[in-house]
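Quick check before the chapter quiz. The format below is the same one you will see on the exam, so make sure you can read both the input and the output lines.
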Amino acid sequence: MSSFAPTSDTSSKDKRNDVSMTAGEFFPNVSKIEYKPNSGPEDVLCFKHYNAKEVIHGKTMEDWLRFSVCYWHTFRGTGADPFGFPTLVRPWDDGTNSMENAKRRLKAAFEFFHKLGNKYWCFHDRDIAPEGNNLAESNKNLEEITDLALELQNQYGIKLLWETCNLFAHPRYMNGAITNPDAHVVAYAGAQVKKGLETAKKLSSSCFVFWGGREGFHTLLNTDIKKELDNMASFFRMVVAYAEKIGFKGQLLIEPKPKEPSKHQYDYDAMTVIGFLKNYNLDKHFKVNVEPNHTTLAGHCYEHDVIMASTFGMLGSIDSNTGSPDLGWDTDQFPMDAKLTTAVMRVVIKQGGLQPGGLNFDCKVRRESTDVVDMFVSHIGAMDAFARGLKSAVKMGDDGVFDRRLKERYQSFETDIGAKIAAGTSSLEELEDYVMANGEPKMISGKQEELEMIYNYYV
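Here is the expected output.
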């Protein structure tokens, strides 16, 4: 969500694109996006690599990739940033926070999902339904809007990949939500999450995500870290208990981010989240939703948290975006680099898929990309990039070059002293005896440049 929402220009309605909404169409100039592998470079409203029903490595592309459109950036984004006013004016959106506008926006979204050809979507509770003057009114609004959402899901055959609650935008959450120093605020967050879980069950959501946007601190002078982490664990235990009570079967997820808007956030990266979950015995109930743009904010490489979470059996879903590391903030760009998507898909293939999670495009068009058609082009380009990544990753796996090289590099742990080290049956005394008998180890090249060259061959 935008960190800055200045008042819209009073002439904004005059600037809206003149798009007819006859026959219920919000995108009358865009047909259903098709797979056209032989299309030219400037044919942008078609897939050149993503063929949903093509079977690769035993599954369709659609099943491997499980693409989802995020509602907040795509249908609530305005193009505003900390230095500028909104630039994205949508013809179906009158700029108000009315229920009528919320319903019209939701109908436009489902037409978009359908024409794009993706099967999943994601949202924050406050994205789709206006927040009321009190909790009861907010719940009533959410109930009414999700009645329509359920109807549209059934009509279009679209599923909810995951829901989350916005526990960071309202002023009440300025000091955090579930780690707030005021128990009254924590209680409000709990009430909001209770309704969110009920909504997730209502819409048959595959997952439910927690993003701790303000669960952290700006200064340690007023922060009791242990108390806040203990309270966060207590809150998550209540979440688990209520999900079980109402019969919500979806996967619970936590999304790491190191900073922004807080100076330091408790869910810093995948390993931090995994450590927290294991420390509080919550790891059987939660997995990690990785956002690669957040990974780079933490100072890691793009695929770092994807690999780390998967290695420990904790990768549940991926918010598939990218950023500009040179800028140093969360830019939420669409992933267009096939080298990066290949790195991610190698991990996804190795663990057998992301289900019940998927690849959610937590991305926003640039504030300068003001045409409605840019919404389609951005998603198409990213979907093609991941389709290319999938095909490249499968080819790498089938050829086995990297698997063989990796096995060769660690082959010393298959026999003799290495096997004992790996099995945990050796001792420091035995290691000393081995070195005394065998002398200095040889220098063995890591072959990094050669492996990078081979990687480029596949991509």
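If your answer matched, good. The CA atoms of residues 165 and 193 lie 6 Å apart.
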